[in-house]
Specification:
By secondary structure, the chain is mainly α. The protein is built from 13 helices and two strands. The protein has a single domain, classed as ABC transporter involved in vitamin B12 uptake, BtuC (Orthogonal Bundle), CATH 1.10.3470. The N terminus is likely disordered. It is a multi-pass membrane protein.
Protein backbone atom coordinates (compact mmCIF):
# COMPACT_ATOMS: atom_id res chain seq x y z
CA UNK A 1 0.00 0.00 0.00
CA UNK A 2 2.80 2.39 0.88
CA UNK A 3 4.50 1.54 -2.41
CA UNK A 4 1.31 2.34 -4.35
CA UNK A 5 0.85 5.58 -2.50
CA UNK A 6 4.45 6.48 -3.20
CA UNK A 7 4.10 5.85 -6.93
CA UNK A 8 0.82 7.77 -7.03
CA UNK A 9 2.40 10.76 -5.28
CA UNK A 10 5.32 10.81 -7.68
CA UNK A 11 2.99 10.69 -10.69
CA UNK A 12 0.81 13.45 -9.31
CA UNK A 13 3.68 15.84 -8.65
CA UNK A 14 6.23 14.92 -11.29
CA UNK A 15 4.36 13.15 -14.11
CA UNK A 16 6.01 15.19 -16.88
CA UNK A 17 9.48 14.74 -15.40
CA UNK A 18 8.83 11.01 -15.12
CA UNK A 19 7.82 10.86 -18.80
CA UNK A 20 10.89 12.82 -19.84
CA UNK A 21 13.21 10.54 -17.85
CA UNK A 22 11.56 7.41 -19.28
CA UNK A 23 11.92 8.60 -22.88
CA UNK A 24 15.48 9.82 -22.32
CA UNK A 25 16.43 6.36 -20.98
CA UNK A 26 14.70 4.64 -23.91
CA UNK A 27 16.38 7.02 -26.36
CA UNK A 28 19.81 6.44 -24.80
CA UNK A 29 19.33 2.66 -25.10
CA UNK A 30 18.20 2.86 -28.73
CA UNK A 31 20.96 5.24 -29.79
CA UNK A 32 24.31 5.88 -28.03
CA UNK A 33 24.47 9.24 -29.85
CA UNK A 34 21.46 10.57 -27.97
CA UNK A 35 23.22 11.56 -24.72
CA UNK A 36 26.01 13.49 -26.42
CA UNK A 37 26.35 17.24 -25.82
CA UNK A 38 26.14 17.98 -29.55
CA UNK A 39 22.84 16.13 -29.82
CA UNK A 40 21.41 17.98 -26.81
CA UNK A 41 22.41 21.37 -28.25
CA UNK A 42 20.92 20.33 -31.58
CA UNK A 43 17.76 19.33 -29.73
CA UNK A 44 17.59 22.76 -28.08
CA UNK A 45 17.87 24.54 -31.41
CA UNK A 46 15.26 22.37 -33.12
CA UNK A 47 12.81 22.75 -30.23
CA UNK A 48 13.26 26.51 -29.81
CA UNK A 49 10.97 27.77 -32.57
CA UNK A 50 7.99 25.45 -31.88
CA UNK A 51 8.71 26.11 -28.20
CA UNK A 52 8.25 29.87 -28.60
CA UNK A 53 4.98 29.28 -30.47
CA UNK A 54 3.83 26.94 -27.69
CA UNK A 55 4.35 29.65 -25.03
CA UNK A 56 1.71 31.79 -26.74
CA UNK A 57 -0.60 28.83 -27.18
CA UNK A 58 -0.34 28.06 -23.46
CA UNK A 59 -1.45 31.59 -22.59
CA UNK A 60 -4.50 31.19 -24.83
CA UNK A 61 -5.34 27.75 -23.43
CA UNK A 62 -5.14 29.15 -19.89
CA UNK A 63 -8.12 31.41 -20.64
CA UNK A 64 -10.01 28.48 -22.15
CA UNK A 65 -9.33 29.52 -25.75
CA UNK A 66 -7.57 28.08 -28.77
CA UNK A 67 -5.46 29.77 -31.47
CA UNK A 68 -5.29 27.92 -34.78
CA UNK A 69 -3.64 30.84 -36.58
CA UNK A 70 -0.15 30.66 -35.03
CA UNK A 71 1.47 28.61 -37.82
CA UNK A 72 0.14 30.91 -40.53
CA UNK A 73 1.03 34.07 -38.60
CA UNK A 74 4.54 32.63 -38.23
CA UNK A 75 4.78 32.24 -42.01
CA UNK A 76 3.41 35.71 -42.82
CA UNK A 77 5.64 37.51 -40.31
CA UNK A 78 8.65 35.62 -41.69
CA UNK A 79 7.77 36.57 -45.26
CA UNK A 80 7.22 40.25 -44.45
CA UNK A 81 10.56 40.41 -42.62
CA UNK A 82 12.38 38.50 -45.36
CA UNK A 83 11.07 40.73 -48.14
CA UNK A 84 12.23 43.91 -46.40
CA UNK A 85 15.62 42.40 -45.50
CA UNK A 86 16.04 41.30 -49.12
CA UNK A 87 15.04 44.67 -50.56
CA UNK A 88 17.51 46.45 -48.28
CA UNK A 89 20.30 44.03 -49.22
CA UNK A 90 20.65 42.46 -45.77
CA UNK A 91 21.73 45.75 -44.14
CA UNK A 92 21.38 46.21 -40.39
CA UNK A 93 18.72 48.89 -40.95
CA UNK A 94 16.83 46.46 -43.15
CA UNK A 95 17.06 43.71 -40.52
CA UNK A 96 15.79 45.98 -37.74
CA UNK A 97 12.96 47.44 -39.84
CA UNK A 98 12.07 44.01 -41.18
CA UNK A 99 11.83 42.50 -37.69
CA UNK A 100 9.74 45.41 -36.42
CA UNK A 101 7.39 45.18 -39.38
CA UNK A 102 7.10 41.40 -39.00
CA UNK A 103 6.19 41.80 -35.33
CA UNK A 104 3.78 44.63 -36.18
CA UNK A 105 1.76 42.58 -38.67
CA UNK A 106 1.60 39.64 -36.26
CA UNK A 107 0.38 41.93 -33.44
CA UNK A 108 -2.26 43.37 -35.79
CA UNK A 109 -3.51 39.87 -36.63
CA UNK A 110 -3.64 38.88 -32.98
CA UNK A 111 -5.50 42.11 -32.19
CA UNK A 112 -8.12 41.38 -34.85
CA UNK A 113 -8.59 37.79 -33.65
CA UNK A 114 -8.86 38.82 -30.01
CA UNK A 115 -11.25 41.66 -30.85
CA UNK A 116 -13.54 39.38 -32.85
CA UNK A 117 -13.70 36.94 -29.94
CA UNK A 118 -14.02 39.40 -27.06
CA UNK A 119 -16.20 42.06 -28.71
CA UNK A 120 -18.44 39.99 -31.00
CA UNK A 121 -18.32 36.72 -29.03
CA UNK A 122 -17.21 34.69 -32.03
CA UNK A 123 -16.03 31.18 -31.06
CA UNK A 124 -12.24 31.03 -30.60
CA UNK A 125 -12.04 28.10 -32.99
CA UNK A 126 -13.84 29.92 -35.82
CA UNK A 127 -12.14 33.31 -35.38
CA UNK A 128 -8.63 31.82 -35.24
CA UNK A 129 -9.44 29.43 -38.11
CA UNK A 130 -10.44 32.41 -40.25
CA UNK A 131 -7.25 34.24 -39.31
CA UNK A 132 -5.25 31.09 -40.11
CA UNK A 133 -6.61 31.18 -43.66
CA UNK A 134 -6.09 34.94 -44.03
CA UNK A 135 -2.50 34.84 -42.75
CA UNK A 136 -1.54 31.81 -44.87
CA UNK A 137 -3.09 33.39 -47.96
CA UNK A 138 -1.26 36.65 -47.26
CA UNK A 139 2.04 34.78 -46.83
CA UNK A 140 1.56 33.10 -50.21
CA UNK A 141 0.33 36.28 -51.86
CA UNK A 142 3.41 38.35 -50.93
CA UNK A 143 5.59 36.54 -53.48
CA UNK A 144 3.01 34.44 -55.35
CA UNK A 145 4.06 31.44 -53.30
CA UNK A 146 7.79 31.73 -54.03
CA UNK A 147 10.48 31.64 -51.29
CA UNK A 148 12.71 34.67 -50.67
CA UNK A 149 16.44 33.91 -50.86
CA UNK A 150 19.62 35.95 -50.42
CA UNK A 151 18.94 37.41 -46.96
CA UNK A 152 22.61 37.73 -45.97
CA UNK A 153 24.84 36.38 -43.22
CA UNK A 154 24.00 39.12 -40.71
CA UNK A 155 20.31 38.16 -40.70
CA UNK A 156 21.17 34.47 -40.33
CA UNK A 157 22.87 35.03 -36.96
CA UNK A 158 19.66 35.74 -35.02
CA UNK A 159 18.02 32.39 -35.74
CA UNK A 160 20.90 30.22 -36.89
CA UNK A 161 23.86 31.62 -34.93
CA UNK A 162 25.49 30.29 -31.78
CA UNK A 163 26.50 32.01 -28.55
CA UNK A 164 30.09 31.13 -27.61
CA UNK A 165 30.07 28.82 -30.67
CA UNK A 166 28.04 26.24 -28.73
CA UNK A 167 24.50 27.27 -27.71
CA UNK A 168 21.97 28.21 -30.39
CA UNK A 169 20.85 31.82 -30.03
CA UNK A 170 17.28 30.77 -30.85
CA UNK A 171 17.45 28.37 -27.90
CA UNK A 172 18.60 31.21 -25.64
CA UNK A 173 15.60 33.28 -26.80
CA UNK A 174 13.29 30.36 -25.96
CA UNK A 175 14.69 29.94 -22.46
CA UNK A 176 14.51 33.70 -21.74
CA UNK A 177 10.90 33.91 -22.98
CA UNK A 178 9.91 30.85 -20.94
CA UNK A 179 11.36 32.35 -17.75
CA UNK A 180 9.81 35.75 -18.51
CA UNK A 181 6.29 34.42 -19.02
CA UNK A 182 6.59 32.04 -16.08
CA UNK A 183 7.29 35.08 -13.89
CA UNK A 184 4.47 37.05 -15.52
CA UNK A 185 1.96 34.27 -14.80
CA UNK A 186 3.10 33.88 -11.20
CA UNK A 187 3.74 37.43 -10.04
CA UNK A 188 1.59 39.83 -12.09
CA UNK A 189 -2.10 40.68 -11.88
CA UNK A 190 -2.45 40.06 -15.60
CA UNK A 191 -0.89 36.61 -15.33
CA UNK A 192 -3.05 35.57 -12.40
CA UNK A 193 -6.14 36.91 -14.17
CA UNK A 194 -5.65 34.40 -17.00
CA UNK A 195 -6.14 31.51 -14.57
CA UNK A 196 -9.24 33.21 -13.15
CA UNK A 197 -10.73 33.82 -16.60
CA UNK A 198 -10.08 30.24 -17.65
CA UNK A 199 -11.46 28.86 -14.40
CA UNK A 200 -14.71 30.83 -14.49
CA UNK A 201 -15.02 33.72 -16.93
CA UNK A 202 -18.26 35.09 -15.48
CA UNK A 203 -16.93 35.01 -11.92
CA UNK A 204 -13.73 36.72 -13.08
CA UNK A 205 -15.77 39.47 -14.71
CA UNK A 206 -17.89 39.96 -11.59
CA UNK A 207 -14.73 40.21 -9.47
CA UNK A 208 -13.59 43.22 -11.48
CA UNK A 209 -11.16 41.57 -13.92
CA UNK A 210 -11.29 43.20 -17.36
CA UNK A 211 -11.90 39.93 -19.16
CA UNK A 212 -12.45 41.34 -22.67
CA UNK A 213 -9.28 43.42 -22.54
CA UNK A 214 -7.18 40.56 -21.16
CA UNK A 215 -8.67 38.14 -23.68
CA UNK A 216 -7.57 40.43 -26.52
CA UNK A 217 -4.11 40.98 -24.99
CA UNK A 218 -3.63 37.22 -24.72
CA UNK A 219 -4.31 36.70 -28.42
CA UNK A 220 -1.99 39.59 -29.26
CA UNK A 221 0.78 37.95 -27.20
CA UNK A 222 0.17 34.60 -28.89
CA UNK A 223 0.39 36.16 -32.35
CA UNK A 224 3.44 38.25 -31.43
CA UNK A 225 5.30 35.18 -30.18
CA UNK A 226 4.32 33.31 -33.36
CA UNK A 227 5.55 36.26 -35.43
CA UNK A 228 8.85 36.30 -33.56
CA UNK A 229 9.17 32.56 -34.18
CA UNK A 230 8.54 33.26 -37.88
CA UNK A 231 11.37 35.79 -37.96
CA UNK A 232 13.70 33.28 -36.28
CA UNK A 233 12.64 30.62 -38.78
CA UNK A 234 13.44 32.85 -41.75
CA UNK A 235 16.74 33.79 -40.12
CA UNK A 236 17.70 30.17 -39.38
CA UNK A 237 16.85 28.98 -42.90
CA UNK A 238 18.16 32.20 -44.51
CA UNK A 239 14.97 31.96 -46.54
CA UNK A 240 11.50 33.44 -46.34
CA UNK A 241 9.26 30.42 -46.84
CA UNK A 242 5.48 31.01 -47.25
CA UNK A 243 4.71 27.41 -46.27
CA UNK A 244 6.66 27.62 -42.98
CA UNK A 245 4.85 26.72 -39.78
CA UNK A 246 2.47 24.13 -41.24
CA UNK A 247 1.07 22.07 -38.35
CA UNK A 248 2.75 24.16 -35.64
CA UNK A 249 -0.60 24.99 -34.08
CA UNK A 250 -1.29 21.30 -33.43
CA UNK A 251 2.19 20.68 -32.03
CA UNK A 252 1.80 23.72 -29.77
CA UNK A 253 -1.54 22.48 -28.46
CA UNK A 254 -0.11 18.99 -27.88
CA UNK A 255 2.95 20.36 -26.04
CA UNK A 256 0.79 22.59 -23.83
CA UNK A 257 -1.56 19.77 -22.87
CA UNK A 258 1.28 17.28 -22.31
CA UNK A 259 2.82 19.95 -20.08
CA UNK A 260 -0.28 19.96 -17.89
CA UNK A 261 -2.54 22.61 -19.46
CA UNK A 262 -6.27 21.94 -19.47
CA UNK A 263 -8.17 22.67 -22.69
CA UNK A 264 -11.11 23.82 -20.56
CA UNK A 265 -8.87 26.58 -19.16
CA UNK A 266 -7.62 27.63 -15.75
CA UNK A 267 -4.68 25.21 -15.47
CA UNK A 268 -1.22 25.01 -17.03
CA UNK A 269 2.22 26.57 -17.05
CA UNK A 270 4.82 27.66 -19.58
CA UNK A 271 7.45 25.64 -17.70
CA UNK A 272 5.32 22.53 -18.19
CA UNK A 273 4.95 23.46 -21.86
CA UNK A 274 8.74 23.76 -22.10
CA UNK A 275 8.95 20.13 -20.96
CA UNK A 276 6.15 19.13 -23.33
CA UNK A 277 7.97 20.63 -26.30
CA UNK A 278 11.17 18.86 -25.29
CA UNK A 279 9.31 15.56 -24.96
CA UNK A 280 7.89 15.85 -28.48
CA UNK A 281 11.28 16.90 -29.83
CA UNK A 282 12.98 13.95 -28.11
CA UNK A 283 10.55 11.64 -29.91
CA UNK A 284 11.33 13.19 -33.28
CA UNK A 285 15.05 13.18 -32.52
CA UNK A 286 15.24 9.53 -31.54
CA UNK A 287 13.10 8.49 -34.50
CA UNK A 288 15.59 10.24 -36.77
CA UNK A 289 18.58 8.72 -34.99
CA UNK A 290 17.26 5.18 -35.44
CA UNK A 291 16.19 5.90 -39.02
CA UNK A 292 12.44 5.41 -38.58
CA UNK A 293 10.54 6.58 -41.71
CA UNK A 294 8.41 9.70 -41.29
CA UNK A 295 5.06 7.93 -41.67
CA UNK A 296 5.89 5.60 -38.79
CA UNK A 297 7.04 8.61 -36.80
CA UNK A 298 3.64 10.30 -37.09
CA UNK A 299 1.80 7.17 -35.96
CA UNK A 300 4.15 6.65 -33.01
CA UNK A 301 3.98 10.32 -31.99
CA UNK A 302 0.18 10.24 -32.05
CA UNK A 303 0.07 7.12 -29.85
CA UNK A 304 2.53 8.62 -27.36
CA UNK A 305 0.54 11.88 -27.19
CA UNK A 306 -2.61 9.88 -26.40
CA UNK A 307 -0.76 7.97 -23.67
CA UNK A 308 0.57 11.21 -22.19
CA UNK A 309 -2.90 12.76 -22.16
CA UNK A 310 -4.39 9.67 -20.51
CA UNK A 311 -1.70 9.92 -17.85
CA UNK A 312 -2.54 13.59 -17.30
CA UNK A 313 -6.22 12.70 -16.92
CA UNK A 314 -5.34 10.02 -14.38
CA UNK A 315 -3.26 12.52 -12.45
CA UNK A 316 -6.09 15.08 -12.52
CA UNK A 317 -8.53 12.51 -11.09
CA UNK A 318 -6.05 11.58 -8.38
CA UNK A 319 -5.70 15.24 -7.39
CA UNK A 320 -9.49 15.58 -7.09
Amino acid sequence: MESKMSISTVLKKYNLIVMLIVFIIISAILSPSFLTLNNFLNLLQQASIPGIVAIGMTLVILIGGIDLSVGSVLAFAGMVTSMLVYRMSGSMAGIILGCLLGLAVSVAMGLITGFLISKFNLPDFIASLAMMEIARGAALLTTSGNPVFGLGDAFHVMGGGFAFDTVAISGVFWIILTITFALVLKYTLFGRSLFAIGGNREAAMLSGIKTKRNYTITYVLSAMLAGFAGILTASWMSTGQPTAGNGYELDAIAASVIGGASLSGGAGSVVGTFGGVFLLQILTNIFNLVGLPSYYQRIAKGIIIICALLLNRFVAKERK
